[in-house]
Amino acid sequence: MLPAVVKLCCGISYPHLRSLAGLQRTAVAVIGQELTHLQRWGQVQHHMRTHAGFKYNEPKPEDIKPAPSKDDQLFHVQQGQEAMRKALCMLEDTQGWKVEITESDGDVICSKVMPGAGKVFRLEAILEASVDELYDLLFVRVEEMQQWNPSIQQIKVLKHVGPETIITHEVSAETAGNLIGQRDFLSVRHSCKRNSSVYLGGAAIQLESFPPQAGFVRAEDGPTCIIIQALKEDRGKSRFTWLLNMDVKGWLPKSIVNQALPRAQLDFTRHLRRRLTASATLG
Q1: Which residues have a Cβ under 8 Å from the Cβ of 109 and sit 6 or more positions away?
Q2: Is the pLDDT of residue 19 over 70?
Q3: Which of 86, 125, 136, 188 is the residue whose CA sits 20 to 30 A from 165?
């Protein structure tokens, strides 16, 4: 999950977060079970054929590359699962979060300095969309994000590694007022759907076949995560929790970075709401 893409944050002062830890423990347990089940690549292939609702983009001839080995595929799945596990562990630690921003629409951003990760940001919002709709926008159709989020110049799925894991390359847009500047990101993203919740985790990776691009500073997502939970009182709405953990690289002062990142979260959420409103109007 950067000033252009999806990661996670939440406000711990709200009563409903008392139940969030249990959900996160469940997700961590599920990830461990998935890892065991995916030890055989044949099972991954079976899931790819039978996973309902997952759409694969038809590659262009120039995009077709030699298929990675089964060991490489499994390694990337494990990377995605481990990123999600680490991000959820950060959320389990509910002590010491400081409120950074409280918006009039109820959005709250908190921050905390984490050992080995530096300052991370946690946002929580209520969105007028179902869990499935948000999963579709933020994972299945991630390449379309540049159409509704002006902070993103491009997102491309480089590899589908099973039905729940993808490798993406993202370039942030060169926009006015962007204090951080243009960056590119190479990330593994993993999804997990359980009951009425969706978990989206990710982290930066390195590929010899896709080195840093000329003209861009390659930033790195630390372990990040989004949790999307259906509201019990209204299944058409979702609680959106996003942990943003990023090293933007370069020579920018931390004070500037720490001001820009939470604002980028608010900008992303605003653009996402506009996209959801437009979809509802057309629907």
Answers
A1: 9, 11, 99, 100, 101, 102, 121, 122, 123, 262, 265, 266
A2: no
A3: 125
Cα separations in angstroms, 88 against 1, 97, 124, 156, 179: 13, 15, 15, 26, 29
Picking from 7, 28, 37, 5, the residue whose alpha carbon sits closest to that of residue 162 is: 37
Across the chain, what does the average pLDDT equal? Answer: 78
Q: What's phi and psi for 77, nearest 5 deg?
A: -60, -45
Hey, where are the domains in the chain? 15-282
Residue 272 CB neighbour total at 10 angstroms: 21
C-beta separation of 247 from 218 below 8 A: no
Q: Per the confidence metrics, is the pTM higher than 0.85?
A: no
Give me the CATH code for the 15-282 domain, please.
3.30.530.20
Residue 207's contacts (CB-CB under 8 Å, 6 or more residues apart) are 158, 167, 186
Question: At a CB cut-off of 8 Å and minimum separation 6, what does 117 contact?
Answer: 90, 222, 223, 245
